[in-house]
User: Fold these one by one.
Assistant:
Number 1:
Amino acid sequence: MTRSHRSVRHEPETNVELNPLFSRPGESTIFPRFTIPDGESLPGTAYQVVHDEVMLDGNSRLNLATFVGTWMEREASQLYAETFDKNMIDKDEYPQTALIETRCWRMLADLWNAPDPAAAVGTSTIGSSEACMLAGLALKRRWQHRRRADKKPTDAPNIVLSSAVQVCWEKFCNYWEVEARYVPVSVEHPTLDGHELERYVDENTIGVVAIMGVTYTGAYEPVELISAALDRIQDGTGLDIPIHVDGASGAMVAPFLQPDLVWDFRLPRVASINTSGHKYGLVYPGLGWIVWRDAKALPEDLVFHVSYLGGDMPTFALNFSRPGAQVLLQYYLFLRLGFAGYRSVQASSRDVALYLSHEIGAMDAFTLWSDGSDIPVFAWQLTDGHSQNWDLHHLSERLRMNGWLVPAYPLPEGLSGITVQRIVVRNGFTRDLASSFLTDLKKEVAYLDALTAPMPDGKHKEAFHH
């Protein structure tokens, strides 16, 4: 079939049909879905087609599933538009952007109580998943160096994780051939807390990952208890095992709302910390951060060096070209909010989470798993015996009809027989919006409770992936 013949086919599933209002003389009113069109169209036409398509995505502000920021101030959006063209990897072409990146991770090193923030090492990343990959690589390489120095084999590294860990750690273990040793959660130990940790670590353990804000429930893992357990293990076996703190969410909440909680570089065993600038760092999607305690925590053979303005700039990343605009947005927010501003924003989100969890926990249908007092995230299950006619998947579908995205999913290994729903309260989700959500939630629960027979037994669509 020639291209000209292919371009005039009008099957609705293979073409996008243009509203006549937006077509101009000489323009096609049909665009192929899966092949590049033969000719050009006007900017306004192409804009309208894409605009109308993504309109079907729904309202991101009503997405209570995502941790990723969905709102910023007008000035931030203006700065974003002005710096779309910045490439973060071009540090010699954009030296000021590179300098601002360094300022940001130095600020984070100070926020996370690095012994000497000036001696810390850090970088921005596309997100906290890339940051976790870099953290894992650093742990593995440090372990390899120690093993080789002792003339021991390096072919069987392992890393210890909670079964509630985010999927990026599963990817790390798969991609870089590290055995994942999962510590299952339980009702008695709903997070990794150091209990029986000695069963999982050995001379091949490159590190232990602690999560500041488990994605399933929002709860902090007690890093101090994990560190104390590893201290005891070292006293008994001589094994000196470092900790990486996956603070994707909590590392930008705990310093402001729980400043006395010891989880960061105040613990000598903590080698590195990552966070998501685009979560509770309050930036639009596409930004993560990782900071190492000092240069010893990041093996030099993993670092590449570029020079700019006659100076040396170390770089360590999986990606090459990537946006620099989000780094500038993070700096904008650090200047705009300061410590007091971040504390106020995070406290407001926590207040909304506590309000919602209190109201939901008071409903007969639900039993809380967490209340949002750590990070502003909480989860609940259907109360045992409440109903045989519906479950949380049905409720999730009913809420979606109102525009709300609230996932239902099983808890991780050890508790996988329990299904929960979870809400992430982000900046921009106001008390007023929370009240509107509660109204819809109660309406849909009343509808489901009034059923006289079970909902159809269909296969539930996977609502969420960790």
Number 2:
Amino acid sequence: MTVTKAAGKLTPVLSNTWDQPNGYTLEAYRSRGGYQALAKALTMDPAEITNQIKASGLRGRGGAGFPTGLKWAFLPPDDGKARYLVVNADESEPGTCKDIPTMMGNPHVLIEGIAITSRAIRCEHAFIYLRGEVVHVYRRLLAAVREAREAGLIGQGLGPNGDFNLEITVHAGAGAYICGEETALLDSLEGRRGHPRLKPPFPAVAGLYARPTVVNNVESIASVPGIIGNGVEWFDAMGTEKSKGHGLFSVSGHVARPGQFEAPFGITMRELIEMAGGIRPGHQLKFWTPGGSSTPIFTEEELDIPLDYDSVGQAGSMLGTRALQVFDETTSVVRVITRWTEFYQHESCGKCTPCREGTYWLKQIMLRLEAGQGKPGDVDLLVDVASNIAGKSFCALGDAAATPILSGIKRFRQEFEDCITMPAREMFPYEASAVFAESEGTR
């Protein structure tokens, strides 16, 4: 993973230690002003912290884009009993890869954000729910929490008046994509199978252990120290009117230099592709995803749309997790969507019928189309099945499975029709799409 800097375009805030030797350590983080925002927050009234986050316009960075400060404000009045902060670090959707690098390269910005947020919501025990397969990140988070505790930054009797206590638990999940849904995450954290809960009640009222709980994404919480430390005006100077601030844009696929680009909201895909070295030599763009595999796909026509929540939504897609996957003309749309469909079918928790049964049938139809063994009417059947999943499943996983199929057929219907009689591998050979060629020494 690379971090590319371009004067006037990128805003390295969360990634400002990634290019520093041992930039993940407490020493490195403090050398660049780390934990100064926490010291400031500990002198502030909790309500004042929440009001600053609300005034900043920070929107959730996990996909939905819900105002972060407003989410905190939904908590009921403090009754003196436990309330919790849970950080959703269960990043696992195909193409999405911004939170894992953040925790790996700069874990202390997340810990500082947790401490400030906990102060704001009067929480004394926060949890980081991490996808368990990323053992290297788990170890790094554990080490960072230990560093912060030994330095007296978290623990008991914090702040000028010694009135703030905070414990942070890093929890490794078992690797279920459904646990990225906040209520399924809470069930898993409580030791049960990760299944989405019926809402209401919402987590703000009855979340972890049936107590008021804030669930926020890694990047959302990691963005808090910058706002508190530098001020609302600083944050407001970046981004667009309704999508303020900076964010990580993960560019992958058929570009010369894939990587993470931290930039203001409103940057365009054309600019990001240019910063990534352009489409790989000798090829041209075919389609791309603005927010990951669960969002409607875009083509060259949308390259100049500002990448902010409202502009992307008005163009017919979602900004989501800013997983910008780039595919050139050598790529089979059918093959790509088949892989995504297999993922969503495998990760369906099985709680509701539309998703449990529908994703299975979507996978069967997509597999036979990819193999060139489709049946007349299969494309219309795909539209019918997907339409009966979208908006009708218990949680958003069903929508995630249906969306790429519906948008793929809308944009490239003829390619789907051609696959009824011709395998995708013949129309689009695997070798042509490969980013790395096999060498003699690896055979």
